């Protein structure tokens, strides 16, 4: 978070942000950063374990049906980013599916790492600028590849339809580099 723009003279907005952070289930230390240290909060994140993705997807489809919405086959309630899990929905998700995430308030200067495939949502508290970078670690290549396969089934007009991570290219270049290093050190590897 490289910038948080807080309007001057709007005390009521500060109270609204405090309420949003409290309703977002932020921990006590986070609350102190805002109320006592007077740090600038930019965004409230809710991050869930990747293993809970299917449960969250099922829950969102269930809620959509209850509200009379359709669930087209080529759409996905997570990738469509059409839902925000507010406090009542987060509570219901926990009660009905046993899924609970982590609430993180990102203050000016903070970095938030999101594990591969972890469903997440963000609520901007003020005007802010965030710098985002995708990173594929070797440990999560399999999961990233699985995600790109999920994206293939979205509609052709969906913004996530294409493989933005280009996981196949990452795998190709990682293997190419490893083979190159092995070949360059081939003579030293064959010595007893």
Automatic annotation (TrEMBL):
One of its GO terms (molecular function) is transcription coregulator activity. Keywords: Cytoplasm, Iron, Metal-binding, Methyltransferase, Nucleus, Transferase. PROSITE patterns: JMJC. Its cofactor is Fe(2+). Histone demethylase that specifically demethylates 'Lys-9' of histone H3, thereby playing a central role in histone code. Its EC number is 1.14.11.65. InterPro entries: JmjC_dom (IPR003347), LSDs-like (IPR045109). It comes from Rhinopomastus cyanomelas. It catalyses: N(6),N(6)-dimethyl-L-lysyl(9)-[histone H3] + 2 2-oxoglutarate + 2 O2 = L-lysyl(9)-[histone H3] + 2 formaldehyde + 2 succinate + 2 CO2. One of its GO terms (cellular component) is cytoplasm. One of its GO terms (biological process) is regulation of transcription by RNA polymerase II. Residues 1-152 form the JmjC domain. The JmjC domain and the C6-type zinc-finger are required for the demethylation activity. Its main location: cytoplasm. It comes from the Eukaryota. This is Lysine-specific demethylase. Belongs to the JHDM2 histone demethylase family. Pfam families: JmjC (PF02373). Binds 1 Fe(2+) ion per subunit.
